[in-house]
Design brief:
By secondary structure, the chain is α/β, with parallel strands linked by helices. It has 8 helices and 5 strands; from the N terminus they run E-H-E-H-H-H-E-H-E-H-H-E-H. The chain has one domain: 3-Layer(aba) Sandwich (Rossmann fold). Helix 2 runs antiparallel to helix 4.
Length: about 190
């Protein structure tokens, strides 16, 4: 079984994907991390790289071809990416959502720790992070419609949807894991 995980900025996607991969003993692929690396190699932030992608499909196509190939050649893994549900249609599709203010607060708190997210410039407040997340959503939607004719953030694309706004990490993980476990038992 392949589990694709997507969601809103700050919803806990990465945390849950890592915990789920650890619990199942499966590898985890992180498309956002690949895109951040590709941006850094060009001397760009992720936001700048996404903007470039609005006119250069190669910025999306490389990772999208990669995840499509993974879905065709491997099994029993977690993939975290906003278009993974589309490129691996036989995956178990999970979407985590969060209120925009809470998501921005979570991302800002994470950015205050030493990390290598290469997110955007000027993320010095929760409001700045909220604006950056909204701009990313707009860029993502534009690129996904333009290149693939899809709406990436549509709840109907997913098998399981969870709003994490008022939930702890453990509560989110337990709900996601219980859903996955029920599907594994049928698989």
């Amino acid at each position: 079984m392949i589990i694709s995980l997507s969601g809103a900025g700050g919803s806990g996607k990465s945390t849950i994907a890592m915990k789920l991969a650890d619990k199942l003993g499966w590898p985890r692929y992180y498309i956002g991390g690949l895109r951040r690396e590709m941006a850094a190699r060009r001397g760009l932030t992720l936001a700048e790289y996404n903007k470039l992608g609005e006119s250069d499909p190669a910025t999306d196509m490389e990772v999208d071809d990669y995840q499509k190939k993974l879905g065709e050649t491997e099994d029993n893994f977690i993939i975290e990416g906003r278009t993974s549900w589309y490129f691996i249609p036989h995956s178990l599709k999970i979407y985590l959502d969060v209120d925009a203010d809470e998501g921005a607060r979570r991302v800002f708190a994470h950015l205050q720790q030493k990390n290598k997210r290469n997110e955007d410039n000027g993320l010095d407040s929760v409001e700045a992070v909220k604006r950056s997340i909204a701009q990313r959503l707009e860029s993502d939607n534009l690129r996904y419609r333009k290149y693939y004719g899809i709406k990436g953030y549509n709840r109907e694309n997913y098998d399981f949807y969870l709003d994490t706004t008022n939930l702890s990490v453990d509560e989110v993980f337990n709900q996601v894991y219980n859903f996955v476990r029920s599907r594994l038992d049928k698989h």
